Amino acid sequence: MKKIIYLIFSALFLLSINPSYSQNVYYISPGGNDSNSGKSPESAFQTLQHASDIAVQGDSFYVLPGTYTGFDLRESGSPNAPIVFKALEGVTINLPNYKTNDGINIENGGWIVIDGFNVVNQPRAGIRVAVSDFVVVKNNFCNENGRWGIFTAFTDDITIENNVCSNSINEHGIYVSNSSDRPTVKNNECYGNHGCGLHFNGDISMGGDGIISDALIEGNLLHDNGLGGGSAINMDGVQESAIINNLIYNNHSTGIAMYMIDAAEGSKNNKVFNNTIINPSDARWGIISADGSTGNTIYNNIIINHHSFRGSISIDESSMENFISDYNLIVDRLSNDDGESNMSLEEWQALGYDLHSNLCPAEEKLFTNYLSGDYTLIQGSDAIDKGTNLVSQVVDEDLKNNIRPQGEGFDIGAYEYISPSGIYNGQMPEDFILYQNYPNPFNPSTHIRYEIGSSQYVRLKLFDLLGKETATLVNEQQSAGKYEIEFKATDLASGIYLYELRAGSYTSVKKLILLK
């Protein structure tokens, strides 16, 4: 989600969205007192746990700078009235909550937002979310925790976004477990973790169907993980999911692993598009598909491996059904026997794989400054315009939120090349107008109008208050002119939504209200 949406989103929590909900705003400060009203910084509560104990749907808690003991929250918000804990800059949790060995523990709740905390040196997880749906965990820094930075279990529709999870001592940066469907794990940075950067585990032994389905794993920066084993993106029983625009480098195990150990089935029917993977000489394979992980599609990836034997892609016999790989930049080492041996690209192509793929040139001929971790593309890079538009229904921007494609075709890897002249710099702000929708409020349909002054690639999307995308109304190249789009919301609940128009390098966001 773009920064402008977050600003509007935060502001809307201070408004009365629905008068039947509390909509109280409270403050917490190390110098406060839990007998205070909490209604202003001067009358703030002292402890996070007291705030958690009184929280009801619609409440927002602003945490003032200082050091705190963690909190345990077992309450639910609602779709249009979440419970929000927002930490201002300079808030650190360095002691676990009174009930579990985690800094923040969310359990048996839902519709909760945890935003902006530093959570360090916890015995188990920095932030734990269990048996709780529609939770947003964003903008947190979780460092040097005993097992995980962020851990979730049985959490449908969770969003984990813009967090830094580093130096977990025993396991992973972010761990999504236990049959959690529709998780969004986006724009996080995970580094220095003993195990995986991101780990997803269906874990059939814990109950549920043992499958994680419909995940979005997008735009994550994953580096220097896995000295104790564990992939940068580890997927045990993940199905029907999108793994896109991730930058993965200097990890010491596999880049992206699709397999089955603890899950009910293999990791099937996933879309692995536009990732950049650079493995060092002590790593394993770039991408693996094993243990009955059928139907996976690998398009538009840069997969470089500096290991002397292991290479870009490895599959096993049980995962070959409907396996597709093409339009990638790879090294000359592939495997169809689970990495027991390797073969050349020419031999791999004879099996029907990667027919439009090419071998990677030296990294200095691809990237701006790979030695310092800058994997944006240089002018003339072999990755420019060499990808396929078969990814267009899933990938519409790059790791830096630049619209794809910028040139004649999709670029390969996590970044689109942006020419120094700026393809869209001729667009003037006055030529880019997003009008208020009408009617507003509406039921069940409304119209959205906008104007662009020159030919642009235009995208119009709708989001709910938790930042979940609910609809894409426009996603195409359009000529200059005025446009009007009808939007029917027959499947949406009443509430406030945000619609975002992007055209070229400009973005505009407005709100609409649905009343049924």
Keyword list:
516 residues; mainly beta; Immunoglobulin-like; twelve-stranded parallel β-sheet; globular; disordered N terminus
Q: TL;DR of this structure?
A:
By secondary structure, this protein is mainly beta. The chain is built from three helices and 46 strands. The chain has a domain at 429-514: Immunoglobulin-like.
Cα shape:
globular
Which bin fits the share of residues in helices? under 10%
The radius of gyration is 23 Å
CATH architecture of the domain at 429-514: Sandwich
Strand order of the largest sheet: 1-2-5-8-11-14-17-21-25-28-31-34
Number of helices: 3
CATH topology of the domain at 429-514: Immunoglobulin-like
Largest sheet: 12 strands, parallel
Tally the beta strands.
46
What does the secondary structure layout of this molecule look like, with pairings?
Blueprint: H1 3-12, E1 25-28, H2 48-54, E2 60-63, E3 66-69, E4 71-73, E5 83-87, E6 91-95, E7 104-107, E8 110-115, E9 118-120, E10 125-130, E11 133-138, E12 141-143, E13 148-153, E14 159-161, E15 164-166, E16 174-177, E17 184-186, E18 189-191, E19 198-201, E20 212-213, E21 216-218, E22 221-223, E23 233-236, E24 238-239, E25 242-244, E26 247-249, E27 256-259, E28 271-273, E29 276-279, E30 287-289, E31 297-299, E32 302-305, E33 313-315, E34 324-326, E35 329-330, E36 334-335, H3 345-350, E37 358-359, E38 367-369, E39 374-377, E40 433-434, E41 445-452, E42 456-464, E43 469-478, E44 481-488, E45 495-503, E46 506-514
Parallel strand pairs: 1-2, 2-5, 3-6, 4-7, 5-8, 6-9, 7-10, 8-11, 9-12, 10-13, 11-14, 12-15, 13-16, 14-17, 15-18, 16-19, 17-21, 18-22, 19-23, 20-24, 21-25, 22-26, 23-27, 25-28, 26-29, 27-30, 28-31, 29-32, 30-33, 31-34, 32-35, 33-36, 35-37
Antiparallel strand pairs: 38-39, 40-41, 41-44, 42-43, 42-45, 45-46
